[in-house]
Target: Cytochrome P450
Amino acid sequence: MDILREMEIKPLLEGWPLTTIIVALLATWTIYSISIIIYRLTLHPLAKFPGPKIAACTQLYEFYHDVLRSGQYQFLINNLHDQYGPIIRISPYELHISSPDFYSQLYTSASNPRDKWKFSADMVGTPSSFFASVEHHVHRGRRMPLNKFFSKKSVYELEGRISGHVEKLCKRIEEFRGTGKPLSLRYAFAALTIDVVSEYAFAKSYGALDDLDFAPYWMDAVDSILEGCYINQFFPWLPALMKNLPLWVVEKLNPHITTVIKYQKDLSEQIQTIMDNPEQDKETDNLTIFHEFLTSPDLPLADRNLTHFTEEAQNLIGAGQTTTAHHLNTTMFHILDNADVLARLKGELETAMPDPRILPPLHELENLEYLSAVITEGHRLSPGNIHRLARISHDPIPTPFPTPTAPTHLIPPNTPISMSILTQHHTPSLFPSPKTFSPARFLSPPSQDLKRYVVPYSKGTRNCIGQNLAQAEIYMALAAVVRRFEVEVWETERGRDIDVVFDFITPKASRESRGLRVLVK
Ligand code: HEM
Model:
């Protein structure tokens, strides 16, 4: 075979100078690229949809804005909607929609299944997790065992685990009272959320609230993993390669990763112990997600292994920590930054918590009208997940927005279609002055209708599995901190420290941001 191949190729190339071969290859590549571009602009099923031509021609446009400019495409997409309308082509393959009424058509229940787009599933570098499962049925099988664990009922049952950590947070805040020493609420809240999610899911708190400085390395580690999300997307083989590199090389490339690797090792050991004896702890309070996985008939056999469990655990920690901490940090800033909001919230909490030392049960806090409005407005103004969430329908979807260039009103099947929570929450026709923090917009009678457009946890089969846990943390922490402490914002500016300027799936403020810092009086 080899001799035959040599005989065919050799005479063909013999006598050709190297430059001629390179020029021929380049010419072939150029002709191929031009043909692809012409196809994408003319005959491609998405050719009729509006949007910048450069985005339709090549994904390098997205690469430029998300990889080279660090998570900037989402913000540009918002501006592109002003220019091109509610449905736009943002890459050769993907459409983005800004019409809030389309949300429930895209993020649907199991009776109208959607797949995830592999390109966006690759962002987190955990291919065997349910978050990154592409096909609807694979996702269902992997997520099913945990649905019960994170249900509203389970959260109520485990309320004590959460409030215990809120009490610990308050004790730590107390240490700063009257000292004149600034307290980083950003790291304090992040410590709370990592302790809660680790205790809730793995029955083993990471003890970040016990650390003198609130273990900032946890948040920094999760942040640094998330900053790599676009690299993972464009080079999906990279996370697997990193896992196989010697530790010292990985540490050189990303010093924050040491915490994560150590934590993954701890987690693997804990999982292995449970795998060796899944019946252990069954009668105690120490049930973990791994017990659920191992004893659930729903989890496919192929997924009952250490790699799968570790990836699920890693996602829960990452998703559970930064998102909830972001809400607490941002919302607390806006409460303190708006004297009337603070006064009204304190008034409501004084009635609900006559003895500030006693935190009412969660269901009572959830019935407080103003606290609920503040929390919803916090989600609206600065949602914890701002990246566009792409879904694929195997059937064509009718679009309600006719455009001169897309007269068929049908989105072709198998097209990645995305919407973004940030775009939706900042729609001025629904939320006038969208950048203003105004809980009152959710108080007047039309508010119930307005609330359905606030979708911080997304919708449909792939909505946030941890939303009941997150809501519980947020209600308890805000109620306790606002009722018990007089705090004053310290050297924190909205533009520099709070407002979001990067989309790394979760939102991030400027590089100079130190988060919310306060003095406790
Ligand atoms: C304010 C807090 C939170 C916000 C705003 C939030 C937001 C979201 C959103 C928008 C999604 C959908 C992502 C997608 O479609 O790709 C999601 C998924 C997810 N969230 Fe959350 N989340 C929060 C808290 C939590 C917590 C506390 C946990 C952990 C217990 C968690 C675990 C997850 C997981 C595992 C998924 C993947 C669900 C799936 O693919 O089926 N989240 N979250």
